[in-house]
């Protein structure tokens, strides 16, 4: 819990893309951190999530995705919160602890912040998830 947030100059880079940040390699006595899953095999898979909403023009709440895998594990990730609008595409990089090869289902959840009769008319027009070297 003492590692983050990173300093203004950014977190040190290690691994596959470390060579893209030569200025960070010049520092001495540097501490390096790596995001891992809580359980074995400790790997996380970076995924880039794009969500376009449909329904009401604007509302308050949060959007979460729940990942399910073949072993019965689930993990929920917040994608956006606060004022939500169908005019925006919500984009976020997520370090998912569930292997994409073992993912059986991804559930879209919207939690409303205030009671409204309009809540049932909000949905996802599209949800795109990209995984690979950059997400």
TrEMBL record:
<dbReference type="InterPro" id="IPR013818">
    <property type="entry name" value="Lipase"/>
</dbReference>
<dbReference type="InterPro" id="IPR036392">
    <property type="entry name" value="PLAT/LH2_dom_sf"/>
</dbReference>
<dbReference type="GO" id="GO:0016298">
    <property type="term" value="F:lipase activity"/>
</dbReference>
<dbReference type="Pfam" id="PF00151">
    <property type="entry name" value="Lipase"/>
</dbReference>
<dbReference type="InterPro" id="IPR029058">
    <property type="entry name" value="AB_hydrolase_fold"/>
</dbReference>
<feature type="domain" description="Lipase">
    <location>
        <begin position="1"/>
        <end position="42"/>
    </location>
</feature>
<protein>
    <submittedName>
        <fullName>LIPR2 protein</fullName>
    </submittedName>
</protein>
